[in-house]
């Protein structure tokens, strides 16, 4: 399988996943032009995308969905509640109904040879999900936009060959930063986002011999930065006695595509 973060962060999210015969996206929260340019950098034609998985309806996950899906007639997969919310979003009401396909947490389905399992997440959206993807004997676990994790989330992500995990904010930066109090409380809540420390805690429980890559994702522009997220997670894993090669831990970039990873 192949994996590439085209954009990741509070200003827009889009992931590419490919197998031998299938190309899909997870979220489309940047412009169609940026998606096209990102795919071009890894030699993937936009018209070869066979499905777009949507985690939830917040603008940083759907802002480019309408133009890109209509332009290339690409099926869209999301929970029913998310689809309803997308249809009511500005600029997205004219996506053809036939492009939408409802998914259900814990019910697997296939896009060609990629098996997809949506699982429920704790976030302030309409029935949000994240996804695990399996093909060619490999598993990719995606966990972003969740205010907390529990045994259920861990059970969905276990045995992943690649983990793409939110490390949204540094708690100290958030607390002394410019955000209003209500927004700080929202981010810190169980319906908000994972901090660097909580991300490290979750990752420490998911390390196993087959795990090849850990990618930290969805960093806040105002309350985090790549070096801090990376150092926090690496140090916490060492402190917890969880051995993992630090060279196989990376951070997904906000404004440019990240390295194409083969697993």
Architecture blueprint of SSEs:
Elements lengths: L1 E6 L6 E5 L4 E4 L5 H10 L10 E2 L5 H4 L2 H8 L3 E4 H8 L12 E4 L5 E3 L2 E7 L8 E7 L2 E6 L7 H7 L4 E5 L4 H6 L4 H8 L7 H9 L8 E5 L8 H14 L9 E3 L9 E2 L1
Parallel strand pairs: 3-4, 4-5, 5-6, 10-11, 11-12, 12-13
Antiparallel strand pairs: 1-2, 1-14, 2-3, 7-8, 8-9, 9-10
Helix pairs in contact: 8-9
Task: Describe this entry's structure for a reader.
- The chain starts with a strand and ends with a strand.
- The protein has a single domain (2-262), classed as Ribonuclease Z/Hydroxyacylglutathione hydrolase-like (Metallo-beta-lactamase, Chain A, 4-Layer Sandwich), CATH 3.60.15.10.
- α8 (196-204) crosses α9 (226-239).
- The chain has nine helices and 14 strands.
- With 263 residues, it is α/β, with parallel strands linked by helices.
- The protein has helices at 32-41, 59-62, 65-72, 80-87, 151-157, 171-176, 181-188, 196-204, 226-239; strands spanning 2-7, 14-18, 23-26, 52-53, 76-79, 100-103, 109-111, 114-120, 129-135, 138-143, 162-166, 213-217, 249-251, 261-262.
């Amino acid at each position: 399988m192949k994996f590439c973060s085209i954009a990741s962060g509070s200003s827009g999210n889009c992931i590419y996943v490919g197998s031998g015969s299938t190309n899909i996206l997870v979220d489309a929260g940047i412009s169609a032009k940026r998606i096209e340019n990102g795919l071009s950098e890894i030699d993937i034609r936009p018209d070869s995308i066979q499905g777009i998985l949507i985690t939830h309806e917040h603008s940083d996950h759907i802002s480019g969905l309408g133009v890109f899906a209509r332009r290339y007639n690409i099926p869209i997969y999301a929970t029913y509640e998310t689809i309803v919310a997308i249809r009511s979003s500005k600029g997205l009401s004219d996506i053809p109904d036939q492009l939408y396909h409802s998914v259900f947490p814990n019910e697997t389905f296939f896009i060609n040879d990629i098996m997809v399992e949506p699982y429920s997440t704790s976030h302030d959206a309409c029935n949000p999900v994240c996804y695990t993807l399996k093909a060619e004997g490999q598993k990719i676990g995606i966990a972003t936009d969740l205010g907390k994790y529990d045994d259920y989330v861990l059970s969905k992500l276990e045995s992943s060959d690649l983990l793409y995990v939110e490390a949204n904010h540094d708690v100290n930066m958030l607390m002394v930063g410019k955000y209003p109090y209500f927004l700080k409380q929202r981010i810190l809540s169980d319906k908000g986002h994972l901090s660097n420390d909580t991300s490290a805690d979750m990752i420490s429980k998911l390390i196993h011999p087959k795990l090849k890559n850990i990618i930290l994702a969805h960093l806040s522009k105002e309350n985090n930065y790549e070096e801090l997220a990376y150092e926090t997670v690496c140090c916490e894993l060492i402190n917890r006695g969880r051995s993992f090669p630090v060279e196989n831990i990376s951070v997904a970039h906000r404004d440019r595509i990240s390295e194409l990873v083969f697993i």
